[in-house]
Write a structure and sequence with these properties.
Number of helices of chain B: 16
Number of strands of chain A: 19
Distance between the termini of chain A: 34 Å
CATH architecture of the largest domain in chain A: 2-Layer Sandwich
Strand content of chain B: 15-25%
Largest interface: A-B, 86 and 87 residues
Structural class of chain B: alpha+beta
Helix content of chain A: 25-40%
CATH topology of the largest domain in chain A: Uridine Diphospho-n-acetylenolpyruvylglucosamine Reductase, domain 3
Structural class of chain A: alpha+beta
CATH topology of the domain at 105-222 in chain B: Uridine Diphospho-n-acetylenolpyruvylglucosamine Reductase, domain 3
Radius of gyration of chain B: 22 Å
Number of strands of chain B: 18
Number of helices of chain A: 13
Largest sheet of chain B: 7 strands, antiparallel
Distance between the termini of chain B: 30 Å
CATH class of the largest domain in chain A: Alpha Beta
Oligomer: heterodimer
Largest sheet of chain A: 8 strands, antiparallel
Radius of gyration of chain A: 21 Å
Strand order of the largest sheet of chain B: 15-12-14-13-17-18-16
Chain lengths: 407, 488
């Protein structure tokens, strides 16, 4: 591993602890000197959040990659946070189990990175998001102590559910060392249908998916430049063979009149990786990506608005969850569009840059306008990281001034 | 913080000012009326609040919280009081803020799959409201006819169908909470993935120690197209638990997988006359749901696995009426326990699913050793046990043995890698176990989060986390007054 690593233009010394205790030791040393720590897993989300400004130490998490315990018949697994997603899935697949989150670039992504960045994809409609799978978590606190919450059983309400705070916290409350997940059986059969939609039919398709007789595990709308239609509906099914076969037939019938050309049944060899591939469409490893949230009923309309405002963009919408992502076409600065998209997203809606080049990464463009409840997040950060050594400035609740002082 | 009793003159002033907020019909403070609020479903410890107040709107909750803060009086929220761990016990007295009159379903939006409810809405009301349209609210604690959604949020309640559908936290999208400083915060909401920390996720299950949740946005789910409910009859508990492991191990996720042993079967049969075989060692209620296509095959696989594990017989619920009666027997099993003994105490341990056979054998051995009869009815698919210890509270020696046996059962859950509570919460009952489950550093991290929400500790004091540095009080239960405990 390189002895130095670039974080937001800061050329920083890098370490790669191989045990949770070694990770804790790194935290202790840096706490003593007040030096920030920047966690790097697969390095896929370095363009997320507000840029780092305070020099510190980069901590590569990928040497923390052991599986600690996998009692497959309990359908739980305990692994260190730096394990690559593809390796975790391979281990689970040997027992015909899976973590049904659709993680882009699984050969690079680490479990801890996925949780810290709250990554999810198409099948969240059926299976949920990272928060729904973590049943136990060990993190290092700012004193360099390993602290544990939850446990290794699937149902447990003892103590506060600290994992909920850490999932999506971008490492600002401390590094994850070890995670216990509940996992699911691998579905015996999967299928995907691709429905190139007639012009103007994406909202109708989303409405139909909401009440259709088939119960898809995924229903996505995808806009790809140069495709056979402006919008293609992607519908995923999984389960026992008779249920999947029935649903495929039923969905073809239910969506036929919306199809611009024939409905395509994806080839068996592409079915397993389909959700991952869809996630990768709007998670290129460079450039800018916008993310938006709204009520499910508004999703198709919002996605269409984004495409209209950014012709040529790849847009991926999940109308069941109200989430839209879009790759910003080269040469386009989307920051001026965010306020209008927030209005279009309706009450509670949001729009932000999920990743962007450094000059665009202001607090508002990355996290949206400040919200009142961030006072609570700031209070939590003050308690858990008073000296702001954990990934400072990444989110608004852990601001640290360039002179090194917490603000 | 540990709170001391409040001076009578302070109480008088408090009542006068609270009356100004909610009116004379909005509170009770006579000793006789307060008796109802001295405990919840956990009756082994009791303490009367100084006043119970019944706000009808968030604005009133804000005024009440601000007043308590000004007068330095502890306060805690309460739903229907069905908690089984003393979550609603007013330790040190103070003000109970009952959410019972905040019971409006404010919005149902099926197109967007959510409902907005006030905290005092009874769990079952929500499903009843939308079932004709083919939707339901998934978390279904057995007390769902009585417990409130606000209470479910506090304890992160489970229920039989959480095996497939998840517990309360998986279905709460946002909350409105009156913070301990009297500010109102909206955390999350019906739009998913809002930027920032998942504060909703950590509020769920915080047992009222982070503030008073006044509203919740909850996820609604479509009813499955079809359901198959089977009843597996086994000669022994051992065989039934082996069947559970086999079903889960085969990669089947049933909608529910519930076990009843012979003792509970007897009580349930007397109460409901379902036709349970009284000579069976245990039965399993096994339910699968989903699309009709293929569901028969899945049910057949379960039947085969049950039989491979020596099920004597597998019956099918042939009609919806039969299925509903079977679930009534399960959900009201605790009500029938009164037929077996004058008093009972329910535990809520969890073990890895594969450890169920060993755990059930341990429970039997512990019961034999302490000469306490123990009935079992529980969420087998989750490994979440509810051993019911039967006794007569008039006999102090039996009470002592029940407490010892309870603690041994929970210790055994921990030894097998489990937890002391799957869905009832820590409350006051299990606070001493927290130091067994977690290290001082783990607890310190949790305490920091509580400090962020509830810095002066007036909201639900002495709950969930043991006081820093305090040792577990050995034998604390020996001094408290026993009683019957309602149960899930």
């Amino acid at each position: 591993m390189d002895p130095t690593f670039d974080i937001d233009g800061l050329d920083l010394d890098a370490v790669a602890p191989e045990t949770p205790e070694a990770l804790a030791q790194v935290v202790r040393a840096c706490r003593a000197s007040g030096q920030p720590l920047y966690w790097v897993g697969g390095g896929l989300s370095l363009g997320a959040g507000i840029p780092a400004t305070v020099p510190g130490t980069v901590v590569h998490m990928t040497s923390l990659d052991r599986v600690i315990d996998y009692p497959a018949r309990d359908m739980t697994i305990t692994a260190q946070a730096g394990i690559r997603v593809s390796r975790l899935q391979e281990i689970l697949a040997r027992e015909r189990q899976t973590l049904p989150l659709d993680i882009p670039w699984p050969d690079k992504a680490t479990l801890g990175g996925v949780l810290a960045c709250n990554v999810s994809g198409s099948r969240r409609l059926a299976h949920g998001t990272p928060r729904d799978f973590v049943i136990g978590l060990t993190v290092v606190d700012d004193n360099g102590k390993l602290t544990r919450s939850g446990g290794r059983v699937v149902k447990n309400v003892a103590g506060y559910d600290m994992a909920k705070l850490h999932v999506g916290a971008h490492g600002t409350l401390g590094p994850m060392a070890q995670v216990t997940l509940k996992v699911r059986p691998l579905p015996p059969v999967r299928a995907w249908l691709a429905i190139p939609l007639k012009a103007g039919m994406n909202e109708a398709a989303a409405d139909r998916a909401h009440g259709c007789a088939a119960r898809p595990v995924a229903f996505d709308l995808l806009a790809l430049p140069g495709g056979p239609a402006a919008w293609t509906a992607m519908i995923g099914f999984e389960g026992e063979a008779p249920a999947v076969a029935w649903q495929v037939a039923k969905a073809k019938e239910e969506f036929r009149d919306l199809a611009h050309v024939q409905i395509i049944e994806c080839q068996p060899n592409s079915v397993d990786a389909m959700a991952t591939r869809l996630a990768e469409r709007t998670d290129p490893q460079s450039g800018a990506v916008v993310a938006l949230g709204c009520l499910p009923s508004r999703t198709a309309g919002l996605a269409a608005r984004v495409l209209a405002d950014m012709p040529g963009a790849v847009v991926h919408a999940l109308p069941g969850s109200g989430v839209v992502r879009a790759v910003v076409p080269e040469g386009k600065d989307p920051r001026g569009l965010l306020p209008g998209w927030r209005d279009a997203a309706g009450p509670g809606g949001w729009a932000r840059l999920a990743r962007a080049p450094r000059p665009w990464r202001q607090a508002d463009s990355m996290w949206g306008p400040a919200r009142p409840e961030e006072a609570i997040s700031a209070a939590i950060a003050r308690e858990m990281d008073p000296d702001r050594i954990f990934n400072p400035n990444r989110m608004r609740h852990n601001t640290r001034l360039p002179d090194g002082k917490p603000s | 913080m540990t709170v001391a009793a409040i001076e009578p003159s302070v109480v008088e002033n408090l009542v006068r000012r609270l009356t100004g907020i909610v009116g004379p019909d909005g509170l009770i403070n006579s000793q006789a009326e307060l008796l109802v609020y001295e405990c919840d479903g956990y009756t082994l410890e009791k303490n009367r609040p100084d006043v119970v107040v019944f706000p009808t709107a968030t604005e009133q909750v804000v005024e009440i919280v601000k007043l308590c803060r000004e007068m330095r009086v502890p306060f805690l929220p309460r739903g229907s009081g069905t908690s089984l761990a003393g979550g609603c016990l007013p330790v040190g007295g103070g003000v109970i803020i009952s959410l019972a009159r905040m019971k409006r379903i404010l919005e149902i939006d099926l197109r967007n799959r959510f409902a907005l409810v006030e905290a005092g809405v009874i769990n079952m009301w929500l499903t009843n409201r939308i079932k004709s349209e083919g939707w339901h609210y998934a978390p279904d604690p057995s007390s769902q006819g009585a417990c409130t959604i606000g209470g479910n949020v506090a304890t992160n309640s489970g229920g039989p169908h959480t095996l497939k559908y998840g517990v309360t936290v998986n279905h709460v999208m946002g909350v409105e909470i009156v913070m301990p400083d009297g500010t109102v915060q909206t955390l999350g909401g019906p739009v998913e993935d809002g930027p920032g920390l998942d504060l909703t996720g950590v509020v769920v299950g915080s047992e009222g120690t982070f503030g008073v949740v006044t509203k919740a946005w909850v996820r609604l789910v479509r009813n499955p197209e079809s359901v198959r409910t089977l009843l597996g009859v086994f000669e022994s508990v051992d065989d039934a638990t082996a069947a559970i492991s086999a079903i889960i191990g085969a990669g089947i996720v049933p909608a529910a997988l519930e076990m009843l042993d012979s003792l509970i079967l007897k009580a349930v049969e007397e109460a409901f006359s379902f036709g349970f075989p009284l000579d069976a060692g245990a039965v399993l209620i096994m339910e699968v749901d989903g699309l009709d296509a293929g569901l028969g095959e899945e049910a057949a696989r379960i039947e085969k696995l049950a039989k491979a594990n020596r099920a004597r017989e597998v019956r099918r619920a042939n009609t919806e009426a039969e299925r509903l009666l079977l679930w009534k027997c399960r959900k009201q099993a605790f009500g029938a326990v009164g037929r077996l003994a004058p008093s009972y105490c329910t535990q809520d341990g969890v073990v890895p699913r594969t450890a169920l056979p060993e755990m059930l054998r341990s429970i039997t051995a512990i019961g034999d050793r302490h000469k306490i009869r123990i009935a079992n009815v529980f969420h087998a698919g989750d490994g979440n046990l509810h051993p019911i210890l039967l006794f007569d509270e008039r006999d102090p020696d039996q009470l002592r043995r029940v407490m010892e046996a309870s603690h041994e059962i929970l210790d055994e859950c921990l030894r097998l890698g489990g937890s002391v509570t799957g869905e009832h919460g820590i409350g006051v009952e299990k606070i001493d176990f927290m130091a067994k489950l977690f290290s001082p550093d783990d607890l310190a991290a949790m305490r920091r989060v509580r400090q962020a929400f509830n810095p002066d500790g007036l909201c639900s004091p002495d709950k969930m986390l043991p006081t820093a540095g305090a040792c577990a009080e050995a034998g604390r239960h020996k001094q408290v007054k026993p009683g019957r405990r309602a149960a899930l």
